[in-house]
């Protein structure tokens, strides 16, 4: 059974390579920054992961997930996101609270528990942050939304996800009245810092920084 640290590394590699080309190599520097650890620690773990055939590792270039490593990483992502749905929908935790708790629960190894959890939740396809949940075979849909910063003024849209599960960001969005499914359009863009003035659900007006808007995923109304 892989250790928790190995699982954390594999999930982090998958996260950093998501949306990139096949066999994308995550550098030791990028992974160290993501995990807030040293490059020396990452290099040592890369050697361990390569020895267990979880990654393909080339020194000074980085590591990419092998089929075996990808399967385990997606299993962790699946468990994490199912637990987030459970915590949010069944226990009433806010979307800004569920990530850190799910980080602990994702390391439970009982496949029967996860199978029953999925059934109990009626096989959800997205988590509380709008991320797709991999199926039991490790298949996952690709996100086709775009960041709010790319939305044209006056065009209606709907919030379908966020790119960061940071609790401070999610708390800010909740305070502003922004959640999954919120309808919004851009009224104007402030010239000083490119902040957006938004209309929410055709009635509420809020101002949001460019940095926050970059992290909100939307789909335009058709």
For this structure, what is the CATH class of the domain at 146-220? Mainly Beta
The largest sheet, given as strand count, sense and whether it forms a barrel, is: 6 strands, antiparallel
Work out the number of β strands: 8
- The SSE order reads HHHEEHHHEEHEEEHE
Q: How far from one another are the termini?
A: 48 Å
Q: What Rg, in angstroms, do the CA atoms define?
A: 19 Å
- Beta percentage is 15-25%
Full CATH superfamily name of the domain at 146-220: Ferrous iron transport protein A (FeoA)
Count the DSSP helices.
8
Strand order of the largest sheet: 3-8-4-5-6-7
What percentage of residues falls in helices of 4 or more residues? 40-55%
What features would you highlight for this structure?
globular; 6-stranded antiparallel sheet; SH3 type barrels; two-stranded antiparallel ribbon; alpha+beta; Arc Repressor Mutant, subunit A; 222 residues
Please explain how this structure is put together.
The chain is an alpha+beta fold and 222 residues long. Among the domains are: 62 residues, Orthogonal Bundle (Arc Repressor Mutant, subunit A), CATH 1.10.10.10; 75 residues, Ferrous iron transport protein A (FeoA) (SH3 type barrels). The protein has eight helices and eight strands, in the order αααββαααββαβββαβ. It has a six-stranded antiparallel sheet with strand order 3-8-4-5-6-7. Strands 1-2 form a two-stranded antiparallel ribbon. Helix 1 crosses helix 2, helix 1 packs across helix 4 and helix 2 crosses helix 3.
């Amino acid at each position: 059974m892989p250790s928790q640290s190995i699982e954390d590394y594999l999930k982090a590699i998958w996260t950093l390579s998501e949306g990139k080309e096949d066999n994308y190599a995550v550098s030791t520097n990028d992974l160290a920054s993501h995990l807030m650890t040293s490059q020396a620690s990452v290099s040592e773990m890369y050697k361990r992961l390569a020895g267990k055939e979880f990654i393909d590792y080339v020194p000074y270039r980085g590591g990419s997930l092998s089929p075996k490593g990808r399967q385990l990483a997606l299993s962790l992502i699946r468990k994490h996101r199912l637990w987030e749905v459970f915590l949010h929908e069944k226990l009433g935790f806010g979307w800004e609270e569920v990530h850190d708790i799910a980080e602990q629960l994702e390391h439970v190894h009982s496949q029967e528990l996860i199978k029953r959890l999925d059934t109990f939740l009626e096989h959800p396809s997205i988590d509380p942050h709008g991320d797709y949940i991999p199926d039991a075979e490790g298949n996952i849909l690709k996100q086709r939304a775009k960041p709010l910063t790319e939305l044209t003024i006056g065009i209606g849209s709907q919030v379908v996800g966020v790119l960061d599960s940071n609790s401070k960001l999610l708390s800010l969005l909740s305070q502003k009245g922004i959640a999954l499914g919120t309808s919004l359009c851009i009224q104007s863009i402030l010239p000083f810092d490119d902040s957006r003035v938004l209309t929410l659900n055709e009635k509420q007006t809020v101002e949001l920084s460019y940095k926050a808007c970059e992290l909100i995923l939307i789909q335009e109304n058709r």
